[in-house]
Amino acid sequence: AYYMDKHNTIKPGGEMTYINYCKGCHGKTGNGMGITAKANHLKPQDFRTPEFWETRTDEDILEVIKNGKNKMPAFEKFIKESDRKDVLAYIKKRFSPKEETSTDPLQLLEK
Predict the structure, then answer these.
(1) Neighbours of 12 (CB within 10 A)
(2) Are 75 and 84 in contact (CB under 8 A)?
(3) pLDDT tens digits for 14-68?
(4) Using an 8 Å Cβ cutoff, are 45 and 52 in contact?
(5) In terms of Cα–Cα distance, which of 18, 37, 7, 8 is closest to 84?
């Protein structure tokens, strides 16, 4: 299995797994507006919101990928465990909101 390393480098696999299994519902940008979701009137999670990341652990997300939840199907039979970890790393790197950093010296002194 591949993981996100200490330099936040995504190892091969996660992006392809996302494209093959997740993009149809969660969308190219992770906004939950994929073509399959629209066609079936589904409202998948929007991975771009801080609330999504603040209310779930990695284990929670892996559990949902494996066993499904609500209208999301289970992918245990289709995505092996190492690839589920890879797709989680990809989703985190690609879609989670980034903390804004400032280069304004006055703002840096206030922190």
Answers:
(1) 8
(2) yes
(3) 888 998 899 999 999 999 999 999 898 989 999 999 999 999 999 999 999 999 9
(4) yes
(5) 18
Query: What is the Cα–Cα distance from 85 to 94, expressed in whole angstroms?
Result: 14
**Residue type at 5?**
D
Q: How far apart are CA 80 and CA 78, in angstroms?
A: 7
Which amino acid does the sequence have at 42?
L
Alpha helices in the chain (DSSP H): 14-17, 23-26, 35-39, 50-54, 58-67, 81-95, 105-110
pTM: 0.76
Going by C-alpha positions, the residue among 64, 63, 26 that lies closest to residue 46 is 26
CA–CA dist 41, 1 (Å, integer): 34
Which is it for the CA torsion 59, 81, 20, 74, positive or negative?
negative
- Asked whether the beta carbons of 49 and 29 are under 8 A apart, the reply is no
Phi, psi of 10 (to 5 degrees): -80, 130
Q: Which residue has the tokens 């994929």?
A: 34
* Tokens matching residue 83: 């690839």
